[in-house]
Amino acid sequence: MKSMNRVLVLLAALALLMVGAFAEDAGTPAEVLPAATAEEATAAEATAAEATPAELADDAVVAIANGIEITRQEVVTYAQLMQSYGYLNSALDYESAFNYMLLLNIVPKVKVAEAGARTLLGDEYDALEQEYADKFEESVKEYMTSAYGEDIPEEEYADKYAEALEYFASLGFEKEQYISDSLVYDAYDKLLSSMDFPISEEEILNTFNETVEQQKSAITGAAAYEYYTGLGYQVLYRPEGYRGVTHILLKADDELTKAYKEAADDEAKKAAADAIVESLKDKIDEIYARLENGESFESLIPEYGEDPGMTGDTLQDGYPVHRDSTTYMQEFTDGAFSDKMLNVGDVSDPVVTSHGVHILHYVRDIPGGAVDMTDEMHESIYDYLVQTAQSAQIEAWRDELTVEYTDAYNALIGK
What we know:
3-stranded antiparallel sheet, disordered N terminus
């Protein structure tokens, strides 16, 4: 739910700014207002000129939504910002920009006006109001430093300050409006967060199962599975053939490692690998002897191993390795499926990679198919369904708006 609210607040706040003028920090534009350099300002104005219908004045009212006037400049600015953040393919798509503006800018203002920003924000209102006032002033001062230099003579400061305010105003960015809009978006976030969107366990399970079926078609093997998991996606379907593998990593001498990495052919590489194994022979023999005497592989990892990843759940369950894995070095994968690793509990011969010597342990077989739904997955699906319900509610609010279009709107969108 938080991510949906964040997007709504982000996009609405972005509508206050010109492309390149202030939005250097895309993550928190409503909170951080970096100053524009003269070059950036010129570039922003050039971009605006290219994407602006010359026949309409900046303050031409293109529509009135529930009594709120929407000007040509606001729509053009919104289109540029939506395009720069990937929500529109073209900064000239004013019709789509206008619809986004209704959804993400006008609806919040209307709903907050109905409930009252002070009522929604409660005790936070006054502190937030002061915070946004301070941030506006900070942004003005940063702009002044950028435009006029660090040391502005005292007798010139008032004039330079007035020029800076005039420049901000020319971009549709005025102090009172910024404070008001920022409070609106905070209040709107509170409103959305306070609403109850009941989600049943059946809906969560159905969404989980639907996602599994969708992922089956996309995840056709280990390479695809590891690609998506590597990008941080929550993957709910695992191909067959994975096994859990732990290992003890023994790092080799730098010179020997360099020779292995730079080996020109297979013969040279084998010679370099043999040299690495020989250099660590005493430690390797000691590990195998202790395993032979009944000590557990797991107990030896903290004592000998030099892989910082061998902790927690990985120490217990191992790295998920498939015969077709692309995540690991090929020597490691080959070692995990060697003739010495046929059954759970088996231990490999020494395996050499550019990281050193690995002694591998076949910990378990990892079931393929749909993964079990964890508490984290359950929460993620719940949040997704709440966001979907929120989106539907916001769209319903948009559809309830009374929008009066002017001739300027048709001129803007080219009708």
